[in-house]
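So, can you check these tokens?
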Amino acid sequence: MGQAAKVLQLFKTLHRTRQQVFKNDARALEAARIKINEEFKCNKSETSPKKIEELIKIGSDVELILRTSVTQGIHTDHSMLKMVPRKDLLIENVPYCDAPTQKQ
């Protein structure tokens, strides 16, 4: 796949991830859209293949962090937040055990 296609694919992936991560939050959706577009416009004239690969790697890392680490919180009153994790963030929770049992 050519670099131009990789860049376009990353651009689309970042926007799709933005829509999933900031679902129902118009301010965050708009801020993320502006930031993504701004960063791509800022580097639009880059011609060095090495620098472009580096930027693609940074963009991919950002997408991974957004997808795996960001949760939404909703203000329930002035000092309380209700966390709203996405289904893909929920993992099987294994309880901690101070004294593990010996397998026989």
